[in-house]
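In this section we turn from sequence analysis to structure. A common task in structural bioinformatics is to predict how a protein folds when a small molecule is present, because the ligand can shape the pocket around it. The inputs are simple: the amino acid sequence and a SMILES string for the ligand, here zinc ion. Study the lines below before reading on.
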Amino acid sequence: MLFTILFLAIMGIVLGLYGKFHKRIPILMYHRIATVPGERNSLPAEKFKEQLDYLKEHGYNTITLNDLYNYYVKEAPLPSRPVILTFDDGYEDNFSTALPMLRERNMKATVFPIANWVGRENKWENFNQKVTQTMDWDKLREWKAAGMEIGSHTLNHPFLTQCDENRLEQEIMTSKMILQEKLGDKIDFLCYPYGFFDDKTIAVTKKSGYKGALAIFDNVPLWHQDMFALPRIPISSKQPLWEFALKVGRFHIVFILLRKLERNVKRLARRRKKSVNW
Ligand SMILES: [Zn+2]
C-alpha cells in the first residue's frame, strides 16, 4: 500500500514537471567565435565547429526566434529536436567565421547587434575585453540574406534596470527603429544586455512592438514561461563537449535548474561570508 502511494506520488511529480517543461527549447548564448585567451565568452572556431557537428550528427534542427514564437503563441509545428543559436553584440567574427560554418550545414542563428555600435570597435563597455570589430551594415544585410535572423541588443548596451523611462524608450524602441530602417526588415526580438531586466523594462519592450525578449537563465524565474524573459544557456570556451550535450539535450531544463540552484547556493555562501567578515 505504502509503495503504491509512493509510486503514484512520484509519477504525479514526474508528469507535473513534464507538463510544465516539455515545451521548453534550448536557446544557446554565444558571443565571439575566436580564440581569445582568458575570455570564457569567446569560443574558438574549432570548438564551435565541433558543437555544430554534434548537433547535426544527433538530429538537432536549428530554428529562429520567430519559429519559437509561432510555436509558443500560434502552436505552429516545429522540426524534431529544435535548438536556437544566438550571438550577442554582433561581432565581426560571427560573420567571417561562424556564418560560413552555419551555411555549410544549412543551419540558422540569430545575432543581436548594438544599434549605435554597428561596424565599430567594441568599446561600449569597460570590461578589459580584447578590442575587436563588430559587423557593419553590409555584413548584417548579408547575414540576413543568408536566412539568418537579427534582433536588437539596444542602442548602447546599458544596464536597463538602471535606466529611467526616457532612456529605456531610446534604448529599446529607438534601436528597433534604427535597425529596421537600416536593414529594411522587421526586428521582432530584444536581447537584454547582461541579461538584466525588470517589470519596467518588459513594459517598454512590449510597448515597442517586440514579440519577445531574451535574458540569461539565472536571472529568469523558470517556473512560468514568459516570451519577454526567455532563458538562455551561456556557452563557455571552457566546457567539454559532454556538457554541451547536456545543455541541448532532452533534459536541458533539469541541467539549468541544477545550475541555477548551484549559483544561488554560491551567492548565499558569499553573502554569509561577507556578513561574517563585517
Ligand atoms: Zn551584450
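Residues 27 and 153 are 16 Å apart (CA to CA). As an exercise, try to locate the residues that line the zinc ion site and compare them with your own expectations.
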